[in-house]
Amino acid sequence: VSQETVRRSINSVIKKLKYYKLNEFAVSCPDIKNIKDKDIVRAIMEGSILGNYEFIKYKTDKSKIIDVNKLGLIHHKSLELRETIERTKIICDNILWLRDIVNENADAKNPVEMANIAREIAKKSKLNIKILDEKDIKKLGMNLFLAVSQGSRFPPRLFILEYNGDKKSKERYALVGKGITFDSGGLNLKGTGFMETMKSDMAGAATIIATLKTLSELKIKKNVIGVLPFCENMISQTAYKPGDIFKSYSGKTVEIINTDAEGRLILADALSYTENVIKPDYIIDLATLTGAILKTFGEYVCGIMSNDSGFAKKLYESGEEEFERVWELPLYEDFKDEVKSDFADMPNSSYEGLYGGYAGAIMGAAFLSNFLENTKWIHMDIAGVSWYEKQRNYMFRGATGWGVRLLVNFFSNN
Ligand code: BES
Ligand code: MN
Ligand code: ZN
């Protein structure tokens, strides 16, 4: 028995309650060898709250949907567990917020609308926020970010969200997130079967908003800054084109081979901006970056790539504890050597090979590595874990809310 088996069994109970149209229940919390009381209670709550979730906003007849909205916990140490209960409720609520926003229609969460949502959250949860508009982004010279944005009727926005939980410490982490509110592929248009879920291409940035909100509400002692480029990748008369060459914020030039490799372009500018202006000690980026990571790990594991194995190891430990698992792929020089263009400093998509898309997830990270000089960095490719094509365990079909528990664990324990 592990925390995960508790989450899964309680989820089975939730599904049965829904079947029998019951909306409240109580659990007599068991003693389980080798698992702390508070971790058992936490798992029971997570299995219940996350397992109860359904995305029903657009169902007109909600009467048939059973909301299991009351959970009783029977425990001989109930007073001692108060803090755990409150903490877990905050984490789960923020995961449900994350699922809702990722499941939402792309237009309803366009970059300008997302800015309003983020401002509201920042005010309520006491985060500092700065939102840069198109003019600011142009002035900074983030031309890769602008190139991706230029085909959309929605202008881009860059959010800087700041949580200072440890005023005594100088140590700072930056979280950089891919916020593509819809990825049509651009002129290299995606086909049927590949475009339907692309409203979820902002899951990385949204996970960071949910994480910062949680860190602040839990008063975790850490300083963490989110850098979130939001824009839309559209097919249009004004869209950027294969063959175009752009100068990035860093000064390096990029040849566009494929307009569907847009995530790495907006992240490139956001990463070098973060290193140059924010100057954090550590950077973690979260991005639904490649379909290739789904070929590698399916929807089960998040692929990570890093320039610091000690840093990656710590993230791995948190992943094991939360059952939000990550696995490191190598970022050897040989991969980076393949990121070569005849016309510019680098292409946005490299050697494909006879069978296509060779080392696709790693090549994405290899491209990104060109935009950082010396900051400790982990790239998390969440394309697989952030969205489930079918209901599985305590995850409803669609947005999973993956990553908040992992990151909150990481910042609480390191
Ligand atoms: N947003 C996609 C990656 C993706 C695929 C996320 C499936 C979730 C599910 C990304 O922008 C993309 O299109 N990547 C391309 C890169 C390629 C053109 C080098 C891919 O993976 O095919
Ligand atoms: Mn794409
Ligand atoms: Zn994308």
Topology of this protein?
Blueprint: H1 3-19, E1 24-28, H2 37-52, E2 70-74, H3 82-103, H4 111-125, E3 128-132, H5 134-140, H6 143-149, E4 157-164, E5 173-177, E6 179-183, H7 203-217, E7 223-233, E8 245-247, E9 253-255, H8 263-278, E10 282-287, H9 292-297, E11 302-306, H10 309-322, E12 326-328, H11 333-337, E13 346-347, H12 360-369, E14 376-381, E15 387-388, E16 398-399, H13 404-413
Parallel strand pairs: 1-2, 5-7, 5-10, 6-7, 9-13, 10-14, 11-12
Antiparallel strand pairs: 3-4, 4-7, 8-9, 11-14, 15-16
Helix pairs in contact: 1-2, 2-3, 3-7, 4-7, 6-8, 7-13, 8-12, 10-13
The structure holds ligand BES, manganese (II) ion and zinc ion (ZN).
Residues 180, 183, 201, 262-263, 288 line the site of zinc ion.
